[in-house]
Each structure stands twice: as C-alpha cells, then as structure tokens.
Task: structure prediction
Amino acid sequence: MFLAQAARLGERAVFHAKKEGEYQPVSWKQARVEIEETALGLLDLGIQPGDRVAIFSENRPEWAIADLGILSAGGVTVPIYATLTGKETEYILRNSGARVLFTSNTEMMGKVVHLQKELDLKIVLFDAPYRVSGPRVWWFGELLGLGNTATAQQREGLARQIREGNPEDPASIIYTSGTTGDPKGVVLTHANFLSNCEGVKQVIPIGEEDLLLSFLPLSHVFERMAGYYFVLSVGGAIAYAESLETVPANLLETRPTVITGVPRFYEKTHDRILEAVRSAPPLKRALFRWALRAGSKNRIADRLVLSKLRARLGGRIRFCVSGGAPLPKKIAEFFYAAGILIVEGYGLTETSPVITCNRTDRFRFGTVGLAIPGVEVRIAADGEILTRGPHVMRGYYQNPAATAEVIDAEGWFHTGDVGRLDPDGFLSITDRKKDLIKTSGGKMVAPQNLEAALKADPLIADCVVIGDGRKYLTALVVPNLEKLAGNPEAHALVWERVEQVNRSLASFEQIKKIALLPEPFSLGGGELTPTMKVKRRVVSERYSAQIEELYK
Result:
C-alpha cells in the first residue's frame, strides 16, 4: 500500500517534523528510500520473516520509517509507549522475544540497555551517533548506510519478499494497557489493518489534500491506524507535534485540516476556552454565550466570535475525530455549535481498532455511530457488544486460552463493553462489563456513567466510584486543586456538587460518601494506563484504608 502511494505521489510531502525551529517536509520519495534502506539494514542484522522488532520512541518520522522498514523486511513491529517504565518495557521485550529495538535517545535507551546482552538485543538509536564501552549500539544513520550499500541482488530479494508477502502475516503485536494485570500481546495482521483502512475510507472523507497533526502515541492502535496507516492509504500527510505540551502551538504552526484526539484533549481545549471567557469583561462573556446559542450558521456570531475560537486549532480544521474513551455529549455539542464537528468512533486494540463511527453527514451525539463497512455488530443477551469481521485480531500472542475466552466458535469477538443499538443502528456504550458494580442489595450500577457526570464539574478533576458487594456507593475524588487551592471548605464544596448529580439518580445509584485524594492519578504512580485509563484495582488497593473508612 505504501509503495504504491509513494510511486504515485513522489515529491509530495508525506511527513512534516520540526527541526531547527521550523517544520520541514519529508517527501514520499525520500521516505520510500529510507524505508527500503531500513529494511535492507535489518536484513543485514539478521532479521528473518516473523522476527519481532520493537520501537520505543515518541512520535516522529523515524517511527513510521522504522515501522514500514520492519514490515518490508517481513518483521513484526512491537510498539512500546515512550512513557512506560523500565520494568514495563522489559516485560514487553521479554514476552515478545524482540531481536532489535529502535529507540529515540540515550535517556530512553538507559531503561533497557542493561538487558541487551541477556536478551541478545540489537539497539538502534534514532538520535545522534552514540558510543559506549560494552555492547554495540547502532545509530539509525548507520543502519540506513548498511541498506544503502546493499547489492542489486539483495534489493531484488527484498522487492520479491514484499510482493510475495501474505496479507495474513502478522504486522504487529500491540500490548494492551493492562488495567487488570500484565498486558496481553494482541497480534494484528496486515489484512486486519488494511481492512480497517478500507472500511473507514468509505465513510470518512479524508484525502490527498488533508494534513493531520499527530500527537497521540503511535504505540496506541487508534493513532496507529487512524492517524497513520489510514492517512497513508488515502495519500494524505502527517505533521508530528513536538510533545503533548506543545500541541496548542503546533496547531497554529502546521494548521492541520483534521485532528485525531482522545476526549481528554477536547475537554482540556474546552476548559481553556471557557477559562479565557470567564476572565473576559462582562460584555465579551455575554457575546460569547450569545454566539454559542446562535451557532456557526449565524454569520455575525461566526465572524465576531466563533471563527476566533476555531483559529485556536489552526483555522483550517474540517472536522475532528475522537476515540479511545467516551466523549462527553456536552463537549461534542459545544464544538459543534462553534462550527467544529467531532466524529466519535469506537473500537479496541483487538479490532484493529475501528468497529463503529459517526459520519460527517450522519451522526448522533452521545453515540459512537454506525458499524463501518465489512464489520458486523450485535448485542448479546447480557448486553455485551459482539463484533465479527476481517478487523478481528488473530489472537493473543502465545496465549490461546485467553484468545478462546474472547473469540467464540462462530468468530464473534466479545468486547467486554456493554451497550445498545438503536433502531437506526447507532451504537451507544453504557459501560465495561467487568466494571459493572453489583451492590450487596443486588442492584447493578454502571460506574463510568456516574464518573462522567461527576467529572463534568470543574471542581472535580477525576474520580473512581466504589461499591461492588457493598451496601451503598462511595467515590474517591481527585479535586481540581487549582480551583480549590487552600480552601478549608473543599470537602463541603465538592460534596455539594456530588449532591447535585445525586438528585437526578435513583437511590441505589447515588453516591453516599466521598473521600478527597491528596494527589492526581498518574502514570508514574501506576494508577493510569498509557492511554490514561484509570486502573481501578490499583486505585482500590492504594486507597483501601480511605475506602474502609467510608463504610464504617
């Protein structure tokens, strides 16, 4: 797929990365050369078809070039989140049996270099040449040099290998976030990814003129497919943000036409806008509220207010895409009023990932849309969402028992999510099956709905609802410390907001007590997965004393 596009688009830019203070393009032709040299270099290092090669790096053009080089050589890419600890990275390297590791810089390499000899691991460094006494480390430029000196016979052998590649060959092993123990390696094939690209292509209008800003981690299947493989499949271009912190500035510099983001990104953007409005003079605040009510179709509202809001995202956005977690309905409606449609979709690592998505011309806020072409969806008797089709993974790496638990004899993948389909086929997610709380009175409660309602309040940064097997529900609440800093009445203020949510709930769904936590959940603290999902078990264990106090 990539080579066909490169042959057609040649000198057009495919990647943009910031170097020496400004964004510089990489053409399809240049990328093709570097991908071929990467593949030949890997073959020179002894990589055989089916060997696993890991990438431990932040988003950058080299990530994509290494990945496509690995696939060209017949290897299997194992992405590792740049934010993972040394221990978590070691688990993935050991479990996958990776033979080569691409990594970004010496700091990241320091987390794993001690394993090099034991695992017989060859390390390739993206950044400047590096020499140490001891195990050999290759610079990325050296690897390209090995490929550059390949013979005509070796080049023809590589071309033949690509032509003869089987679509059912593994392309990647992606390790799930692991909210309940060690992560499992999801084996996705070339056919899995390509079927998902083809299905999305039929319903989402992105093409050669589009530019996407990439800031979600490429180690996550959502960005891997929607923000990378899919963009390549339609001939679009990708600009890489320098970091999550620089996204607002990079939006203004690159002026993308499409953004893929998780709900947290849109929520933070929404909060920044409202914070600016709150500090504005009364007349401007009133004008903003009027403009949102009037909407972008009102020319005066659009020219005076809403166009300036869109300018914060670069001024060229046609629409945005959201995935990875449920998008609050009020956030989707806010941006839509401002003239920016957020297209929400749904999927899992095991489904390559897209199962359903809203369309730009057919959408319903609060739902995750319709099944994409080629994908089947149905709801089981207990409410679980099932899906079947070419997007479903081959299985969990070296774990047939776990695979059999989620893929039944008829090929249906059991998502673990609970939802419903409306008469028109729009899917709504109501909760995670395993997260459903059953109180000691036998009542079933969906904690994610409660948590979303609580987190909609500006005083509540995060929360976890507790109550499985208990008489009533409680919540561990991370207060917004910026808004409550030094306030001795913080607990009373937060409880007042919780009671506001309680008023709209049945008695068994109401939060009866809360405990305020002293610090936010974090990756470093182990309470969050790399995709920013809360590890309920870890939180429950860490704050067990506070939880028991709530039930005295």
Summary: The chain has three domains: 2-8+26-165, 268-432, 436-550.
